[in-house]
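On clarity, I found the account of how folds are encoded harder to follow than it need be. Since the whole study asks how a given chain folds, the encoding of that fold should be made plain. For illustration, here is how one protein appears when written out as sequence plus structure tokens:
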Amino acid sequence: MSVLLEKMGLILALLILGYMTVRFKIVPADFTKSLSRLVMNVLLAGLILSSVINKDIPLGGWELVWAMLMISLAYVISFAVALVCARLFPPLRTGDSGMYVLLMAFMNNGFMGFPLVAAFFGEEAVFIASLSNIPLNFLLYTVGIRVLNNNGEKHGFSLRQVINIPIIATLLACLIFAFRIPMPVFVDDLCDTVGASVVPLSMMCIGMSLGNVPVKAAVMQPKMYLISFVKLIVSPAVIWLVLRLLISDPLVLGVIMMVMLTPSAAICTIVGLENGRDGVESSSGIFISTLLSSVTIPLMVFLLGIG
């Protein structure tokens, strides 16, 4: 717990540092978009690959398949909980109910989950966490889009939307792991160096994005606190109750739960913008859940006995 609190303190400091760079205009407001693309498409890929290149992964082939199935199950449970809560709580039945479901269902695995896993469980565990890219993208761009556009319009499945660079890096990592492919030292060092920058830059990137959100407008929306409660407390608790019965390896369970404990995914805003939203309400939800997660993550780790 002391290690986690220390890491969470460091992450919170990086968030604040990123926030202040925007608020004091050290960097322009639109710099966040460029930095997020760099983190997601280059640095995160390096971290995923570095987690398996010339590393001793404490999992066998079938154990990895089971971990993938359990991560997929966790996302299905998260999505189901979001759908139920969106119908159960009257405040979430009005307004943009589709976006509320996305904010409760999808977590910030890339920008926050992977750095937390690397800091708490070690770099090798990032490979297990990276498997979450596959069910997240698949669910988001299939069922998620249909729920977001709950006005009866039909949106076809697009493989191009599901496949992105982190997904490709994850698939490459699976091949390297499955066939135990040795890589040159230069490639190993390059991926390690690139991957090492993910934690500071991803946290600062989140802080910068929060710096673009009107704070007063964000904190004055009671719905966002209810959404954050479901995302940060209710959903992880339900997932843990189910997965603890199916997973015997504490590392796999811990890695999956650490990803599930992260706040609402920033990609919800991007998907919302692509589907006619202005991005203000989703950004407020991400803002509130990210701030609250600095308290709820250590709390849930302690209560659930993770790690």
Observations:
- The chain is about 75% helix and 0% strand.
- The mean pLDDT is 86.
- Residues 92 and 226 are 9 Å apart (CA to CA).
